[in-house]
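Suppose you are handed a protein chain with no further information: no name, no annotation, nothing but its sequence. What can you learn? This example shows the usual starting point.
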Amino acid sequence: MPTFTANWIPWTAADAKSCIRVPTVNDHKYTRGVLGVVTGSRQYPGAAVLSTAAALATGVGMVRFYPVAQLSALVLQRNPEVVIAPGKVNAWLLGSGVASPGGVSISNWWRHRQIEIARQQAAPTVLDAGALYLAGTLGTPTLITPHAGELAMLLKSRGLPTSAQAITDDPCHWALVAHQALGVTVLLKGPRTVVAGPGIAIALEPATPWLATAGTGDVLAGIAGALLAGRHAQLQTKPALLAQLAATAAFLHAMAAALASDGAPLTAITLVDALGAALRQLLSGEGNSSGG
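A reasonable first move is to predict its three-dimensional structure. Written in structure tokens, the prediction is:
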């Protein structure tokens, strides 16, 4: 396996703050960004709730949710402002809580049909979980958000066999391998989250270990999707911006986790609820240098 090198840089509160699009008096819901979301499934319905709630809490102008089974009711119960209708979007979040293609489930077949429909409306895209197989196929700015096990499976499917343990042991190396092999920006989740994109490599400070609980990855994907929707117009001309937005999503995720935990266990929904306070601290300059 070839060795890839990069100058890994840290990500500070000032860096993250510079990536947050703060609305002006002339903004409205469409100028603030519209995020199309295909997340959740019959098996993992909570992913739909968590990803949409996190996107809204991060400040996106509108979320368009593409439903399956009874997910609409769950999403609307938490956030009635979510729009359950197709339409123009500025960015996509695909795959959180969705099983990989295959099998005989009608609902899973329909979920992937919706993902294919989303591909036809080309826009900057976050690929998570069940949509990671699309990495490198979209032709638009693409961010993938795997953990070590998912990245190992993805690389194996592309002829680059490795293991989850190898990726955990050397996340910087394998994030760069994935970025160069797949042609996408990689946010590799783990004990030390790293981001690799065109001409930029970012290593974030470790977040609270209490983040290692179900659903927090869905929250991170929602944050990332919201940030992409808000800055979509600049992504085509600023290749490094996607990695910077990804690092900002991870930074904000860690800040919210520190607030939600305060040294004790947290849940994914309490993480969502802490996003407003985390953003308030970050934008006011009260956030610390690492987000942890």
